[in-house]
Amino acid sequence: MSGHDPIDTLAQRAATAVQDQARSRAAVAPEPAQLRAVGTRRQARRMIVAGIAAVGAIVLLVGVADRLLPPRLELLIDEVVGEADEAPDPAPPAEDDVSEPEGTGGARELDEAVALASAYMEARNAYDVEGARQLVADEFRTDEPPDGYSNLATMEPAFELVQAFGFHFSEVECVPLQGTVTRLVVQCAYLQSSEMHRTGGHAPTPAEVRVYVKDGRIAEVLVTSAPDVSWWGPFRTFVREHDLAFSQVMDGGLALEPEAQRELMERLPEFFQRYEQWLDEQDDSSDVTERAEQPVSPQQHPATDASVEGPV
Amino acid sequence: VSGSGGDGAHAATVPTSTAGAVAGADGFESFYRCSYRPVLQLAYVLCGSWTIAEEVTQEAFLRALGRLDELQNPEGWVRQVAVNLARSRLRRLGAEVRALGRLGARPVAPPADSGQLPVELDRFWSEVRALPRRQAQALALHYLEDRSVRDVAALMGCSEGTAKALLYQARQRLAGRLTDGEAIA
User: Fold this and answer.
1) Which of A230, A259, A261, B63 is most buried, with most CB under 10 Å away?
2) 3-state secondary structure A257-275
3) Residue A83's CB: how many other CB atoms inside 10 A?
4) What is the ipTM of this complex?
5) CA of A287, closest CA in chain B: separation in Å?
6) What is the pLDDT of residue A283?
7) What's the pTM?
8) Can you tell me the distance from the alpha carbon of A160 to that of B71, in angstroms, rounded to the nearest whole number?
9) pLDDT, tens digit, for every residue of B28-75?
10) What angle do CA A279, A281, A287 make, to 5 degrees?
């Protein structure tokens, strides 16, 4: 393969760029001893699973298991196997396990990760950019709320937008979930409210994120709950049908150009007024339709109808 | 092993006695120290995310731990495991993104942190990732680790003829795509 070939030239430059980055990444790779510790714990879990399976087989053989034990046994095996497959290292060791070296995802690291995640959720809830910045890594990114990605550089405008839309958490609860060799994972469940909730008359809805912690900093916050159409659906329908420009701006997620963001922020109050009026109209027309066709059903929310049927 | 340049850190060219003595009889430590970076960069160019690459690289070494003596070709084995894990992880992420996309709330967003490479070079690796799997792997080994055809064949567990054909086909496809897009100056 000729070194003068343009593909070769480009490939060599591309390879050098990757090698440079890999060099700095590899410099902070876990030590072999850390991998060994993880391997030891994984082996122990495998032995536990094997033991449980053996006990299960014996129970089945004596003919009692089919009535009493399978559900419990299945759950137990699922739990342990799940940990072995998906979360090799950060599961807290037994209290009497003194073989755990520090810094490899032990109970203390998990506690710290949970505290870090809770602090981030608190800062985000207070729209405290500086507070949040101190908790996250340089390569931080998030897709919360689930409408586009933001990172450390765009955190400030993203928080502004989040505040403008009134996204707010309550009843935040963070628990250690799982992890890999390099990252700890914390799951934070919470109730979410927003201007869309309030305008549409919806109660706060459950949501959750996963917080990935690496080297004592938050690397990623990713939404793992499905979006709730009860409050989001009507709003999207309204936006799409009534203001294409606004819709396009919103489809840009949280990575807006400064001018687009300014425009969106300025228009938001008026926009929510129009949204409220539209919801009222939906309510009225829905009532008329319902009265004409069937007895009124108080359980049926007009905004939900609108998200399915659109404006009449 | 050619080891003539690049950033390969080929295991065969690196003394192992000191690290091996520290690590114990299985030589895992020297293997890990010599091969971590090449495996990491291979995983990265084939998946486009440093985060995933680091996870799968460490997982691959973890799986090699304790069975190093049993492996006929540990260098090739650990690379293949990392590549397979990266593909599996990407498939799962892709499925999640598509599922959320069907629900209508998340605009298309890349799961990968393709990151800080210049656009032209990032596009090169994107085109490599778009190649058939084994072609991409052969090409990445060839350029990233400066591997000869013989080394590529050994690492991929195929004949030299197959490796040569994979490299030829990969370069042909890549040239067509990059030339069409005028990526080559």
Assistant:
1) A261
2) CHHHHHHHHHHHHHHHHHH
3) 19
4) 0.77
5) 28
6) 67
7) 0.46
8) 55
9) 888 998 999 999 999 999 988 888 888 889 989 988 887 888 888 899
10) 105
Rounded to whole angstroms, the Cα distance separating A249 from A265 reads 11
Contacts of B138 (CB under 8 A, 6+ apart): B152, B156, B163, B166, B167, B170
With CA atoms as reference, report the closest residue to B107 among A208, A143, A226. Answer: A143
Closest CB to B121: pick one of A14, A25, A233. A14
Beta-bridge partners for A191: A170, A206
Cα A130 to the chain's mean position, in Å? 21
Q: Which residue(s) pair with A142 in the sheet?
A: A150, A221
What is the distance between the alpha carbons of residues A255 and A260, in angstroms, rounded to a whole number?
A: 10
pLDDT in tens, B87-99: 888 777 766 666 6
Chain B residue with CA closest to A179: the answer is: B55
Low-confidence ranges of chain A (pLDDT < 70): 1-4, 62-106, 146-149, 178-181, 227, 243-256, 283-312
| Residue B52 contacts A, CB cutoff 8 Å | no
| Pairwise CB contact (< 8 Å): B40 & A26 | yes
- Cβ atoms A192, A162 nearer than 8 A: no
What tokens appear for B84 in the block? 């397979």
Write the pLDDT tens digit of every residue in B121-155: 888 998 998 888 889 999 999 999 888 999 999 88
Gap between the terminal Cα atoms of chain A: 67
Q: Quickly list H helices, A126-257.
A: 129-133, 155-164, 195-200, 229-242, 244-251
- A226-282: pLDDT as tens digits: 767 777 778 877 877 776 666 665 665 555 677 777 777 787 888 888 888 888 777
